[in-house]
Specification:
The protein is mainly alpha-helical and 57 residues long. The protein has three helices and no strands. GO terms for molecular function: structural constituent of ribosome.
Length: 57
């Protein structure tokens, strides 16, 4: 009997010395959570929030 185990990929990032409130950053991060990398980059480029630049970086 062969058991196929599918592992879930988890990614985390830590930003230091970013002058921005967590609420403002979370507003942008919630929009891109669960999306593909290319789609997330496109969304970050088109959103009008100042928080997009450090998140994209």
């Amino acid at each position: 009997m062969i058991r196929i185990v599918k592992k879930k990929v988890e990614v985390s990032a830590l930003g230091k010395h970013i002058c921005m409130s967590a609420h403002k950053a979370r507003r942008v991060i919630d929009q891109i959570r669960g999306r593909s990398y290319e789609e997330a980059l496109m969304i970050l480029e088109l959103m009008p929030y100042r928080a997009c630049y450090p998140i994209k970086k």
